[in-house]
Design brief:
about 300 residues; six-stranded parallel β-sheet; three-stranded antiparallel β-sheet; 11 helices
Length: about 300
Amino acid sequence: MRMRPTLTWEPTGGLLPAVTDLARVVEAVRGGGVAVLSGAGLSTESGIPDYRGENGSLRRHTPMTYQEFVGAEQARQRYWARSQLGWRAMTRARPNAGHRAVTALLEAGLLTGVITQNVDGLQQSAGARDVIELHGSLSRVVCLACGQSSSRSDLDRRLREANPRFEADAERHRAARVNPDGDVELPDEAVRQFRVVACSACGDGVLKPDVVFFGENVPPERVAACRDLVEEAAVLLVLGSSLTVMSGLRFVRQAAQSGTPVLIVNQGPTRGDRWATQRVALPLGEALPALVARVCP
């Protein structure tokens, strides 16, 4: 029986209590040399829900796994049909105050870099440069046969041409808001109408969003770049991540094992709390602008 990837975890007791005072974070960031690891909680105020928060999408939605996507044509049809509607909502999302605050800290020279687990591109839209996209980006598509990379906007045009009535017909089915992985809930009736297109470069290759699905490994060179950033950092600052999946948690463990302070700002417990030297429970849209006001001249 195929094992499902870890999607949830249960917090245990005995953790360092969370505070609402930013003093320790201010002190650490003011000293510079900070590496940031951000998660879906940073984008919730842009209208993109997280996976595991109070209103997280896992309460109503099971994300596509890599094994499902590559293993069944029907799964790919379902993904691309739902993503075709979700992509429209993703492109309407705009950076929020938290994204802009992270960019301000970068421009002030206080951060050594940003690792984002998000695939929405909002941190870059807020002006941040050299962001490591740990889980890839929805703005790109890759062919599983020939490896050709192309833009999601180009695929969007091709899918609209192949399905001229889909979006209009699907409007009456349109259900919940967009999920963090870029799709929306859609009934089978609407999915069955959708026509998937093949790679335009090789002619018949399967197209996949250039993101790391649940159950898929992060490319090793990307992991190495993240490890180098964490190794060189004076502080690791985690923003809006439950750290449930190992792809992000490993960098918290790496920092703690090397004696690098780990500061976590997140509403709710995280899987990395046992390694935290400070846990702050505040909304990022409130905490990060306040942080910038206290550390930037």
